[in-house]
Records
---
Amino acid sequence: MNQVFVHDQLIRFSHCDPAAIVYFPRFFDLAHGTMEDWFSQAVGFPLPELIGKRRVGTPTVSIRCDFIKPLRMGDTLRFELRVSKLGNASADLEYRGLKDGSEHLRIYQTVVFMDLDAARAVPIPDDVRSAIEPFLKTAADTSA
């Protein structure tokens, strides 16, 4: 338990605003890329398989971000993704955004597992749940 998925992303010109810092909505796009790679590389269920073959989506129902320090073009953003809560049909994801070990942002996101054909929430499939569980934060992990 308590695995962390680490995902490094280069901050590019296209991520930045005229003030030469990352334009805040771009962090949500970068976090989504991290989530996609987590599902594919760590959980073992790429979103194209879940969405296309199994017809299970993971729409975001809640998201917020705490901005601590700016990031600039050329920086490497290291996202650390953990699951802070695993419900029947939902997962609360927590992303720590770091640069050189210093925290720059934190994103809190809730996704719901959804039957795309019926357009309703469904329990997390057992095989997907068991692959997600190792990323669930434990009570002992209060520092991150």
---
Amino acid sequence: MYATYLRLDIFVWDSDRTVIRAARRKLARSAQRDPARRDARKRFYREMLRHHADAQRLVAHCRL
């Protein structure tokens, strides 16, 4: 899933809302609204946010 995060074309300093919007654009149309896939969507969004938070921590750690 980290490769998917990298393909979102976002910057490290972008907000969580921007990450969610970019991730939603990566989902297929049928998966965006299907009630049966709601839990899978939530897991996907949470994982993208986790990767984004990790990237922000890494940048904050490496900045001088």
---
Amino acid sequence: MRGFRYLAVVALVVLLIASFAVSQSKPQSQVEQNKKIAVAFLSMIFNDHKVEEAFKQYADPGYKQHNPFAASGAQAAINFLGPYLKSNPEARTEIKRVIADGDLVAIHNNPKQNANDRGRAVVDIFRIENGKVVEHWDVVQDVPEKSANTNTMF
């Protein structure tokens, strides 16, 4: 009888763990997918300089922009970013970290116009809906020549 109770408890624990794992796997896999979409989108734009292709593949046509210097809409973003990257063919960004929560993905990155540029510390925040980037915010800060500490901005 004691062995039966032990097996029943073990079976219940295994069932609870399996149930929890299944319930957690869907949101986690969607969050991971959102991270992949945001990273691919940002990389295709700023490292491959394939602005139009990135927006066609990863962005919703109604892409909503919160940067005050750019208009909303995928085509407006293409028109804004395309000329900048054409005039800065060496421009690249280095992704430092990616953080996601639900449909939001934040990418901390260091874009530079060329190899001699200190660049900027940027956090791009993307909202992903149905596998497409639908909204974008960014916070930008120049990397100074001198800092009051040795921690770096990254």
---
Amino acid sequence: MAIVFADLKTAEAKVSRLNLTGVDSSRVAFKYLENQIYKKHKIDAAQYLKSFDFYAKDKKQLLSIYIQAEKIIEKNKNKNPTN
């Protein structure tokens, strides 16, 4: 879950750096990246949301996932400083 969340947060950041002029353009760009992430992890949006809802019921678990995701993002930034 943390890996998928980290990938989604990274995709959000990438889209925001694109400086697209319209909200619709940003949504389309993010939706494309989101679908690529789901394919990569062999899940779909419904599975992700179901998992997220499950973990959201336990704040400690959700916080743990956020912390793990942050670590993954930082690790990836260090590997690819241009991303």
